[in-house]
Every structure is written in structure tokens, then in C-alpha cells.
TrEMBL record:
It comes from the Bacteria. It comes from Luteimonas salinilitoris. Pfam families: GSH-S_ATP. This is Prokaryotic glutathione synthetase ATP-binding domain-containing protein. Residues 2-42 form the Prokaryotic glutathione synthetase ATP-binding domain.
């Protein structure tokens, strides 16, 4: 399901979104407050939050480097 909705979310400039999936149904797409990162970290032992924050900081630096001329879509794909 993520592969199906990802192109649209990226075109809309979304960088991080959470998909609420129950069985084979997508119930909701969370673009303001994608939860579940802490649960995924607990289950896998991977520091997703640290990677997300580091990448957001990288995108801010890129935006500033380009004098804020990059769109959200461009930043989401970088």
C-alpha cells in the first residue's frame, strides 16, 4: 500500500506520513502527526527518530543553500 500512495504523497510535498492499515484496508493517512515511530523503534531496535531528524536538518540546510527556492515537492524527493 505504501508503494501505491507514495508517489501522490511525494507530489504533494509530503516528506513523512503514517499509514494506518488494518488487515488489507488502509484506514487513514497521517501527514501531520505520523505516529508509530517509537513502537517501530521498540520492535526493531532501529533509531528511526534520529534518522528522520538528521534528514530534516539536511533538508533545511539544502533549502537555505538554495535561498529557499526549492519547493516542498523538491525537498521531499531530495
Amino acid at each position: 500500500m505504501a508503494e501505491i500512495v507514495a508517489p501522490k504523497l511525494i507530489r504533494d510535498g509530503m516528506y513523512l506520513a503514517g499509514l494506518d492499515i488494518v488487515g488489507d484496508k488502509m484506514m487513514e493517512i497521517n501527514v501531520d502527526t505520523p505516529g508509530g515511530i517509537s513502537i517501530a523503534e521498540d520492535l526493531t531496535g532501529v533509531d528511526f527518530s534520529g534518522h528522520v531528524v538528521a534528514d530534516l536538518e539536511r533538508k533545511v540546510r539544502l533549502r537555505d543553500l538554495y535561498n529557499r527556492t526549492l519547493s516542498n515537492v523538491a525537498l521531499a524527493m531530495m
